[in-house]
Amino acid sequence: MEPIDKNLFGKDLICTQDWAFEDLLKVLDLAEEMKANRFEHPYSNSLRNRTFFMFFYNPSVRTRQSFECAATELGGHAQFLEPKAMRLKTATTAGETIEDAAKVMSRYAVGIGIRILEDKISAYGEGDALLKEYAYWADIPIVNMADDKFHPCQGLADIMGLRRNLGKDLRKKRLLMVWGHGALARSWCSVQENLLISSRFGMDVTLAYPEGYDLDPEVIEAVRENCRKNNADFSTIHDPYEGYQDADVVYCRNWMSPQAYRNGEFDKQGEIEKALKYPEWICDAQKMKLTRGGKGLFIHPMPVDRGHEVTDEVASGPNSIIYEVAENRLHVQKAIMALTMGIRQK
Ligand code: CP
């Protein structure tokens, strides 16, 4: 039984920042191969007879469907799990510990994906901590399917889309990461992951948001450090227009404020009401005209809050790559699974 990649076999993926740059390139190169040769790739049976658990605390369109397709296309099976179908210990109820669950699950499957977002925790960071606890006890790789801090599969799909549209060398390409007003009160995971991986690839980063919408300071410090190592620019502004000037890429997404948790609960309604007070923070065609040559790419992890974060004209316009990036989720996840769980078939 020979792993496809001896170095990556068994490795967790909680955040792309934890992986060496060369290993991220390995995923992206393999994802490109798998996209080009979707059903006939030599690793198409690398999960044959094997099961991947998908453990969802929160709903999903892209993540569940793309992981399930990915497992099928690698010759394996993805099993959907949710907490209500298990008997796990919580802060208020007796039940099975993560140690026991992770050790037992490791005896059945070859990998576990976990999603836990903002409304299933009582304070920022708890979702990511839960994944790390599973990773500590499990003998098989844990793949982050989006927690409250990071979303590595999304970040890799984003970069795959940018490299296909802007060229493989993203150094000095200008990214505007801009807060969008919205009615969905999003966690920070997709945005923080994109900032981390874009800065690893040498992009100049402008982060724009209204006062009061700071992201995790430790993550921002890591982004700043990535930019410094790559001789790239990093700046933060609080203006809804300025950052569009000469941007190559605009990523407009709503995110919650640091005050989102009150009395141990996610205050979703309060966050929505607060966010809707900033209608000028929408990505529209007029602002996109300011981007490089008026042809800056629009990127978003989806689901899109159309009419709030972005207009239909931009989201469905010729420079939007949202569907291409959504498709890339499948290819990067196949690559991640093949490299961390896959076996060479004779
Ligand atoms: N981008 C993303 O993770 O989408 P879903 O929430 O639909 O899985």
Query: What level of helicity do the residues show?
Result: 25-40%
- As for the CATH topology of the largest domain, it is Rossmann fold
Order of helices and strands: HEHEHEHEHEHEHEEEEHHEHH
Give the CA-CA distance, first to last residue: 9 Å
List the helices and strands and how they pair.
Blueprint: H1 21-36, E1 51-56, H2 62-73, E2 77-81, H3 98-105, E3 111-115, H4 126-137, E4 142-144, H5 152-166, E5 174-179, H6 189-200, E6 204-208, H7 217-229, E7 234-237, E8 249-253, E9 261-262, E10 265-266, H8 268-275, H9 285-288, E11 297-299, H10 312-315, H11 322-341
Parallel strand pairs: 1-2, 1-3, 3-4, 5-6, 5-8, 6-7, 8-11
Antiparallel strand pairs: 9-10
Helix pairs in contact: 1-5, 1-11, 2-11, 3-4, 5-6, 5-11, 6-7
The structure holds phosphoric acid mono(formamide)ester.
